[in-house]
Amino acid sequence: MDIQIREAVPAEYEALGEITAQAYLQDGLLDYGVADEYLPVLKDVAARAAAAEVLVAVEGEQLLGGVAFVAGPGPAADIARPGEAEIRALAVAHEARGRGAGEALVRACLDRARATEGCAAVVLSTQRGMHSAHRIYERLGFVRTPERDWNPVPHLDDITLLTYELTL
């Protein structure tokens, strides 16, 4: 069966939120585990969908993962500037990894960015430990932009998100 990418429907928000949360927890990406204050944000797909386009990867009836595509600067964007789209919250269920779902989700975001008038680049932030995601980004032509690296929790000086950009 083939992986399909489509817009998430509200009935999938809870399951996608759990996939996203578990991806971060199982990969050790939340400093405080289940007590981490970012965990509820990861689970809140409805909030992402209210401000961005949430895409899912499915194979038959199985939900494999998802991503948020932000068409430009605004409340859903962390680093996008005018003329840039942003990819947020890419996550694939552990049991579905290695089958191309993550890359298919990123490619779908790139297709949407190319179809967005005035969009010249796609940007994203990622944690240092997200090595599988880094490989996808680099394989698709994203380049590191260390001058844009940033800290989402300024009172904790050991958190720096790496940034990538793909010029369209």
Summarize the biggest pleated sheet: 7 strands, mixed
What count of helical segments does DSSP give?
5
Q: Could you give the distance between the termini?
A: 31 Å
Order of helices and strands: EHHHEEEHEHEE
Strand content: 25-35%
Q: What's the helix and strand layout?
A:
Blueprint lengths: L3 E4 L5 H14 L12 H5 L1 H7 L1 E7 L2 E9 L13 E9 L8 H14 L6 E6 L4 H9 L3 E2 L17 E6 L1
Parallel strand pairs: 4-5
Antiparallel strand pairs: 1-2, 2-3, 3-4, 5-7, 6-7
Please supply descriptive tags for the structure shown above.
alpha+beta; 5 helices; 7 strands; 7-stranded mixed β-sheet; 168 residues
Please provide a brief summary of the model.
With 168 residues, this protein is of the alpha+beta class. The chain contains five helices and seven strands. A seven-stranded mixed beta sheet has the order 1-2-3-4-5-7-6.
Describe the structure.
With 168 residues, this protein is α+β, with helices and mostly antiparallel strands. The protein is 29% helix and 26% strand. The protein contains 5 helices and 7 strands; from the N terminus they run E-H-H-H-E-E-E-H-E-H-E-E. It has a 7-stranded mixed β-sheet with strand order 1-2-3-4-5-7-6. It is globular, with a radius of gyration of 15 Å.
